[in-house]
Amino acid sequence: MAPKDPKQAAAAAAAAAGGGGGFFASLASSLSNFGSAMTKSVNGLMGYEGLEVINPEGGTEDAEEEAKKGRWKQEDRDSYWKMMQKYIGSDVTSMVTLPVIIFEPMTMLQRMAELMEYTYLLDMADECEDPYMRLVYASSFFISAYYAYQRTWKPFNPILGETYEMVNHGGITFIAEQVSHHPPMSAGHAENEHFTYDCTSKLKTKFLGNSVDVYPIGRTRVTLKRDGVVLDLVPPPTKVSNLIFGRTWIDSAGEMVLTNMTTGDKVVLYFQPCGWFGAGRYEVDGYVYNAADEPKVLITGKWNEAMSYQLCDLDGEPLPGTELKESWRLADIPKKDKFQYTYFAHKINSFDTAPKKLLASDSRLRPDRMALEKGDLSTSGHEKSSLEERQRAEKRDREAKGDKFVPKWFDQTEDIAPTPWGDLEVYHYNGKYTAHRAAIDSSCCIEEPDSRAEFNPWQYDSLDAE
């Protein structure tokens, strides 16, 4: 018999644990404001006359007040909307030059590193003998990243050849590199005594006017070292709403599948879509299945709070005598942080997590990122434009010389990985960074804070074509 809807099973488990009433109370409160929220609209915004803005998080503000929470000034909205109309329906990943007002002082490579905050969950998965609990901890690790990914500020696109290094966290070493500019692709590798993590990332987007759909064309593999178990992740797509008008918010709705490539066991988790007044937002429910597609463990929770699990029968019902247990909980976060950063996000931007003799191509050294971090939007915009122009000039120079860009720390393989949204060229960690870092760590050099190099991801010292 097929298991019951995981959302129903999760509700039963939560009710047995003494919860379940909060949603209906908050919904009743929200419904009291239904009339005013649905009848008021935003007026005077070109192309969006009559747009109704509903708070996805269940607040009680009316539509006009909600719209004022956008980060754009009125004149900025109008001019930017005129510019962006021609891109509706397009993949804008690498087509549009965006103003720094919508950026956070971090790059996509650093966003990749943010996934490493809760690596202790992978350590636990590696140490766990129960094959199903391994998947509980591993899937909780991947869910933990979504709190960081809800931030509505856009990270900087990495320059071709840009890197990011991280040490001094959970015993792991992390390296990421921008391996392609068109299409934008990044590769990352992390490792400690328990696991290796390898990711090739390529995003496909569809711009819809005031929103954009993001399709994660990527391959993420984790190898647990004790038994050589290989885990493969397929995440759900993401939608960014209210890019220009209203308060920007992000929702990931759909199915996440984490498969044990060694045994055939898997986790299937459903990210609930955000409904009216925020109903269902953040909720994740699903099961760990064995290779015969029989449910073994119920998983439920919210990706912005905590995840829990409970053993279940073949119908997906919680086993009698078992209880809902927590597998992961969000760490404490700063209050009213300007960029909605976690403490770990601040560490990622800090040189405290940088190794000795940081690569000159590291994201921390980007002048536009550093200026934005200091609140200097004018300098940040100028530096961003300069970097982008230098990148274009180097591409012209490379083409004139007949050269091809070759990443330093990752090699392109012949593998083409199919994904639900398109095929992916796979890059593999080549091991050179491990040797590079070992050589530096074994040296006796002492690095002074003011001796760090200027940002330099460039292939050529000179842009003069021969």
Automatic annotation (TrEMBL):
Q: Where is this region: Disordered?
A: 373-400
Q: Would you kindly state one Gene Ontology biological process term found in this protein's UniProt entry?
A: lipid transport
Sorted alphabetically, the keyword list is:
Lipid transport, Lipid-binding, Transport
Q: Respond yes or no to whether keyword Transport is given for this record.
A: yes
- Tell me if Transport is a UniProt keyword of this record: yes
Please list the coiled coil stretches.
none
Q: Name one GO cellular component term.
A: membrane
Tell me one GO molecular function of this protein: sterol binding
Question: What superkingdom heads the lineage?
Answer: Eukaryota
**Per its UniProt record, what PANTHER family does this chain match?**
OSBP(OXYSTEROL-BINDING PROTEIN)-RELATED PROTEIN 4C (PTHR10972:SF166), OXYSTEROL-BINDING PROTEIN-RELATED (PTHR10972)
UniProt lists the family membership as follows: Belongs to the OSBP family.
Protein name per UniProt: Oxysterol-binding protein-related protein 3A
Give the originating organism. Answer: Senna tora
